[in-house]
Amino acid sequence: MNKGNSSFSNYIEKLNGTFGEEHEISVFHINKMKLKYCTGCWSCWWKTPGECSIKDGADEIFRSVINSDFFIFASPLIAGFTSSELKKITDRLIVLLHPYVEFRNEESHHQKRYSRYPDFGLILQKEADTDSEDVKIISDIYDRLALNFHSEKKYLKFIDEANPEDIVYETCNI
């Protein structure tokens, strides 16, 4: 989330509250965390399998993601793409996969480290100049992430087009 974007933050807080007590929800305000970029050191594959060598709190996110039934990426769009904070954590999800590859759909993809991977949704806030090409690029990138992550992107929603109640209903009925 963008530190200065109160409408986006308010939407996410309302969404979180809408899920209710029957669902265990973890919310990570990655805009308030001091997450670092993946350095490509491969330690998470070879030296400490499944554990990132960067100690910045991301390990709590990784545990939450792999132990969830479903997770939601959320970000305002900035310069036509998700925030740099979301990009950092998205890239670092590689820790949850094996370095070994397999062929699926006539492509090379990482093998699973865990037996099950959760599906996910994507909630975005458009910019004034967001166009269909921006949306297509983002959608394609997260479709590719889903393929590599052995999961499925179930939806891409915009906060100005989907109220939190509808997102909760759709998420709980996947």
Layout of helices and strands:
Elements: H1 6-18, H2 58-66, E1 70-76, H3 84-92, E2 97-104, E3 107-112, E4 119-125, H4 132-148, E5 153-158, H5 164-172
Parallel strand pairs: 1-4, 4-5
Antiparallel strand pairs: 2-3
Helix pairs in contact: 1-5
What percentage of amino acids are in beta strands? 15-25%
Order of helices and strands: HHEHEEEHEH
Sequence stretches where pLDDT stays below 50 over 5 or more residues: none
Placed side by side, the strands forming the largest sheet appear as 1-4-5
Q: What is the terminal separation in angstroms? A: 25 Å
User: What's the mean pLDDT score?
Assistant: 93
Cα-atom radius of gyration: 16 Å
Assign a percent range to the helix content: 25-40%
Please give the count of helices.
5
Describe the structure.
The chain is of the alpha/beta class and 174 residues long. Helix 4 links the parallel strand 4 and strand 5. Helix 1 packs across helix 5. The protein is globular, with a radius of gyration of 16 Å. The relative contact order is 0.17.
Give a brief outline of the structure.
The chain is α/β, with parallel strands linked by helices and 174 residues long.
Primary descriptors:
alpha/beta, single chain, 5 strands, 174 residues, 33% helix, 3-stranded parallel beta sheet
